[in-house]
Write a sequence for this structure.
């Protein structure tokens, strides 16, 4: 999630978000992802919620036809995505787009798999 968050940063989270499923565009969320190497706890930013039309192309990221202004990312978003986010799921992207493993690769994330919302960084790791 660089440049927003770095490994070993100490962050403040809200686990009640998971209970009440109170997520919106731009929220940074925590969830577990499982692959052949086991479980990974990851942070990603919500770009789309249920019913949103997400497109990624040469212009960048569009939500419902509007190009997103993404000041939090330092790299260009690549890939070819054209999806309507299904009910009870979210579409997530990492802020460091050129090396992020996110919904472009793993698909949408079920809201029931979201563990918490990141509120802010307490202490940056330097």
């Amino acid at each position: 999630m660089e440049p927003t968050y770095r490994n070993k940063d100490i962050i403040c989270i809200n686990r009640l978000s998971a209970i009440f499923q109170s997520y919106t565009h731009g929220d940074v969320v925590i969830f577990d992802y499982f692959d052949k190497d086991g479980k990974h706890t990851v942070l990603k930013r919500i770009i789309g919620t249920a019913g949103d039309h997400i497109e990624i192309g040469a212009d960048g990221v569009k939500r419902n036809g509007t190009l997103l202004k993404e000041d939090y990312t330092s790299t260009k978003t690549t890939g070819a995505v054209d999806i309507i986010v299904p009910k009870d799921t979210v579409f997530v992207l990492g802020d460091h787009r050129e090396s992020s493993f996110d919904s472009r690769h793993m698909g949408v994330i079920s809201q029931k798999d979201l563990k918490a919302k990141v509120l802010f960084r307490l202490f940056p790791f330097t």
The beta strands are 10-14, 28-35, 38-49, 53-57, 60-63, 66-67, 81-84, 89-93, 109-110, 114-123.
